[in-house]
Design a protein that fits this description.
Elements lengths: L1 H21 L4 H17 L2 H25 L7 H21 L1 H9 L1 H7 L5 H21 L13 H28 L3 H17 L12 H9 L1 H14 L6 H25 L2
C-alpha cells in the first residue's frame, strides 16, 4: 500500500513546486501588486492634492520668482524652463513615497504573506516598481493642467512624448525607492532616508538651473544622478529642448531600472 500511495502524492506536489521555483515572472501576481497600489492611490486622494499643491508652490516660487533674475534660457523663459523640472520633482517625491508601503507591509505582515506564497520574489519587486511608476506618472501628468500658466504649449505629440519620458523616469525612481525600502527595516527611518536622498537628487539634476558651463565637480554629480536623465528627457519631450538626446536619456534610465530591480530582487531573497 505504501508503494501505491507515494506515486499518488508525488504528482500533486512536484509540478506545483517545480513551476513555482522555475518561473521568474508571475504576471498575475505582478498585476495584483500593481492593482493594489492603484487602489491605494484612489483611496488616498490627499496624495494627489499634496502633489498638485507642492508643484504649484515650486512653480510659482521658482518660475515666477526667479524669472527676472535669470532671464531666458536657450530661448525659453525661466518658468517654461523650470516647468519640466516641476514634473520631475513630482515624480521623485511620489515615486519614493510609494515604496514606503513595503516597509509598512513588512511591519504588518503582508510582505511575509507575499514571500511565502508560491510565486517568485521578482513578483513583489516588479509589481511595486510598476505600481509606483504608474501612480507617480498619474500625479505628475496632472501638473500639465497648469502648463498655460507657464506659457508651455501642449500638443497631442508632446503630451504623448512627455507621458513616455515621465513613466520611464518614474520607473527608475520607483526602482530606487524599492531598493531603499528593502534595506530599511524601521518605518520611522524611511522618511529620514527619503528626505536625505530626495532633495540632493532634485537639486543636482538640472531641474532648476541649466547644466551648461557648470563646474567640473557638479558636472560629475549630474552624470551620476539618474534624475538628471529624467529631467533632460521630460524637458526635451515637452519643450523640444535638446530633443535629440531623449533616446540616450531614456536608455540610461532603463539600464538604471534594470540594475535597481536586480538589486531589489537579490535583497528580497535575503529576507527571512
Amino acid at each position: 500500500m505504501l508503494k501505491m500511495t507515494e506515486p499518488a502524492i508525488m504528482p500533486e506536489i512536484m509540478p506545483e513546486s517545480i513551476s513555482a521555483n522555475a518561473r521568474f515572472i508571475d504576471l498575475e501576481g505582478i498585476a495584483m501588486i500593481w492593482r493594489r497600489d492603484m487602489v491605494r492611490l484612489w483611496r488616498q486622494r490627499s496624495r494627489l492634492l499634496g502633489a498638485v499643491a507642492r508643484a504649484l508652490v515650486w512653480l510659482f516660487a521658482l518660475g515666477f520668482g526667479l524669472r527676472g533674475s535669470l532671464g531666458s534660457i536657450a530661448g525659453f523663459s525661466y518658468e517654461q524652463f523650470v516647468f519640466p523640472g516641476v514634473i520631475a520633482m513630482t515624480v521623485i517625491f511620489s515615486g519614493l513615497q510609494s515604496a514606503i508601503s513595503i516597509v509598512y507591509d513588512r511591519e504588518f505582515g503582508f510582505l511575509k504573506e507575499v514571500q511565502v506564497a508560491p510565486t517568485p520574489r521578482s513578483t513583489l519587486v516588479i509589481g511595486k516598481c510598476l505600481g509606483g511608476a504608474s501612480s507617480s506618472t498619474i500625479q505628475a501628468l496632472i501638473i500639465l493642467i497648469f502648463a498655460p500658466f507657464a506659457a508651455v504649449h501642449l500638443t497631442p505629440l508632446n503630451i504623448l512624448a512627455t507621458f513616455v519620458a515621465t513613466f520611464v523616469t518614474a520607473l527608475a525612481i520607483s526602482g530606487l525607492g524599492v531598493v531603499i525600502a528593502m534595506w530599511i527595516t524601521d518605518f520611522e527611518n524611511f522618511g529620514t532616508i527619503q528626505n536625505f536622498i530626495t532633495l540632493p537628487l532634485y537639486m543636482f539634476s538640472g531641474a532648476i538651473f541649466p547644466t551648461r558651463q557648470v563646474p567640473g565637480w557638479l558636472h560629475a554629480v549630474l552624470l551620476l544622478n539618474p534624475l538628471s536623465y529624467g529631467v533632460n528627457a521630460i524637458r526635451g519631450a515637452l519643450l523640444g529642448y535638446e530633443a535629440s538626446s531623449i533616446p540616450f536619456n531614456l536608455g540610461i534610465l532603463l539600464l538604471f531600472t534594470v540594475v535597481m530591480v536586480g538589486i531589489a530582487i537579490f535583497m528580497s531573497r535575503k529576507e527571512v
